[in-house]
Amino acid sequence: MARSIYLTSPEGDSGKSVVALGLVDLLSRTVQRVGVFRPVARSTKTPDYVLELLLAHDGVDLMYDECVGVTYEEVLADPEQALAKIVQRYHEVARRCDAVVVVGTDYTDVAGPTELAYNGRIAANLGAPVVLVVNGSGRTPGAIHQVVDIVVAAMGDEHAQVVGVTVNRCGPAAVDAVKAEVEQGTGLPTFALPESPLLTAPTVRQLMEAVGGELMAGDEELLSREVLDVLVGAMSVEHLLDRIADGAVVITPGDRSDVLLGLLIAHQADGFPSLAGIILNGGFEPSPVVQRLIDGLGTKLPIIETALGSFRSASAAASTRGHLSADSQLKVDTALALFEAHVDGPALLRALDVARPEVVTPLMFEYELLDRARADKKHIVLPEGSDDRILRAASTLLRRGVAHLTILGDQAQIRGRATELGLDLTDADVIDPHDPEILERFATEYAKIRAHKGMTVERAREIVPSVSYFGTLMVHLGLADGMVSGAAHTTARACAWSSACSTRSAPTWRARTSSPSGTASCTAGPTSTARRWSTTTSSPASTRCRRSLPCTTRRTSRASRSRASCCRTCRTSSCSTPRSSTRCPTPPRRTRSTRASRRPTACAATASTARRTSTCPARSRASSGVASRTSTRSSCTSATARRRRRSAAAWRSRRRWA
């Protein structure tokens, strides 16, 4: 039977979605299958963003329709019938999961006391312990304590059991006081989360929908950026530039080309804040000349046009409240970081009586690695700072406090792009590989490492600015604990760069092929690019040809293939020269030959070999039989030879990168 947790609150806008996301994330580390359930959906016209947020988590594998009980209309029409349907649909989800997070109603339709009591009835009928979520914004610790006492009593009247309290949106300075007051007064495990303005900030897309606008120019991907301020740009440009801030959206008439161009230039200039977007109101569009100038600037800043006037546009934008959704990775990272920092996960699981199974899922293993990394932070260098995926991953790791990061690349470009994407890389170090001081030190070290290859400092100055060489040298010199690469470069390149900057014992790559005469292998390492082809058998002969290969064709039997062997000089299976001999009694005279005849892996039965049979008596006797077997090159080249040619080509490719 699945364990369930019921989240409820006595009012709206309490931040249940933050706690619900944190619980789903916590349970994903503990059990194999986590489910979510919404007994009463917010609306039948639009999807429930809270449910979509939870379903987007990697630990949940359910469909949207499976996780919805009833609607507000069904509750108002027949509460008892709606309750029966909720219980039935919940058990359908519970049978497939080990733990289920049930998120109560949002107080969007029914009166407060009635809805709180109905949440208590649902929790009692589902047999789920209740975790209470209280809004602490603008309340003293004593006032919050009173609210908790009232709600706990109301839950008891409906036979629901409250096992924990989470006070959300507290003032940062009052977190400890609130936790101590509520926990001491109620005796329940209590957790307090500080308020984060980012979690309630709307996105540019939400503002665009609020004013009924359309995207006129810019990158559509940047519509998911959070808006931290809204300004009306009705003043002159010089006064407006003093008031803009990072993450601000400026609303200005569409015919104010001076304001529009001034904002675009300030957004791209160093030393000025990075805007989240521009809204052009009044239904005016820039003139064709100004539009051509905007296109020439190549700006990615979203520019939205709307038919509303200045007052209506500003009112709609100011009244838009953001929420935690799956579209904003920055909000998700912030919410999880707050939950991990202020909620004692093991204590909460003990209160919910959730046992840990013996089986470890990939997601549980991933979170264990993150916990271990967080406990012992390492310094990791990311050489591919120009990739948006790397910037997003770096923002997530920094928010979760997993590691110390250094990103390689141009500092202005990386931080500017991160700001455009709405990412916070304040805690990350950004190093330019072309910094003269660091470059000279790294070039000297690289020339020292590769001195046996003839590397000079001048040549090293050209190689070291490559971000992967630079990052590898940071690890080599102890400036970082590790490097993560591979988003924009292949694995072969990353390995080659690492090998080129390493002074440790050389790793060995082996390509083995089975043959009647033994096993051929090619071994090499980063400090020595010389190839050594050899053939090893149980034969004690030390004078054996080191490049001798079996002469086989597809048409011969296994017995004949096992008896066939090649002379190391004339490379024919019919030559009478013993394998242990160091020289053929009748060596072939040097003649012009085709490329196939010069290959060490070519079979003896080739046309060029047949033309040279007069130089060896043994080959003359068998020339007729050999020539009859040479219809095409493919029919006389053994599978072993082809594999060895591929291995040699692969090694040459690795040698070039090294």
Describe the structure.
The protein is globular and about 85 Å long. With 658 residues, it is of the alpha/beta class. Residues 504-636 have low confidence and may be disordered. It has 4 domains: 3-199, Rossmann fold (3-Layer(aba) Sandwich), CATH 3.40.50.300; 204-318, Udp-n-acetylmuramoylalanyl-d-glutamate--2,6- Diaminopimelate Ligase, Chain: A, domain 1 (3-Layer(aba) Sandwich), CATH 3.40.1390.20; 377-504, Rossmann fold, CATH 3.40.50; 531-637, no CATH class. α7 (175-186) links the parallel β6 and β7. InterPro entries: DRTGG, P-loop_NTPase, P_AcTrfase_dom1, Phos_Acetyltrans/Butyryltrans, PTA_PTB, Ser_kin/Pase_Hpr-like_N_sf. It holds the Pfam family DRTGG. Keywords: Acyltransferase, Transferase.
What is the compact description of this entry?
The protein has 658 residues and is an alpha/beta fold.
* Residue fraction in strands: 5-15%
Q: How many β-strand runs?
A: 19
User: What structural class do the secondary elements suggest?
Assistant: alpha/beta
Query: Could you name the CATH homologous superfamily of the largest domain?
Result: P-loop containing nucleotide triphosphate hydrolases
Would you state the CATH class of the largest domain? Alpha Beta
What do the pLDDT scores average to? 77
**Taking Cα atoms only, what radius of gyration do you get, to the nearest Å?**
36 Å
Question: What is the first-to-last residue Cα distance?
Answer: 57 Å
Main sheet? 7 strands, parallel
Q: What overall form do the CA principal axes indicate?
A: globular
Read across the widest sheet, the strand sequence of neighbours is: 3-2-4-1-5-6-7
Residue windows where pLDDT falls under 50 for at least 5 positions? 504-636
State the CATH architecture of the largest domain.
3-Layer(aba) Sandwich
Number of helices: 26
Q: Helical proportion?
A: 40-55%
Function: Involved in acetate metabolism.
Protein name: Phosphate acetyltransferase
Pfam families: AAA_26, DRTGG, PTA_PTB
GO molecular function: acyltransferase activity
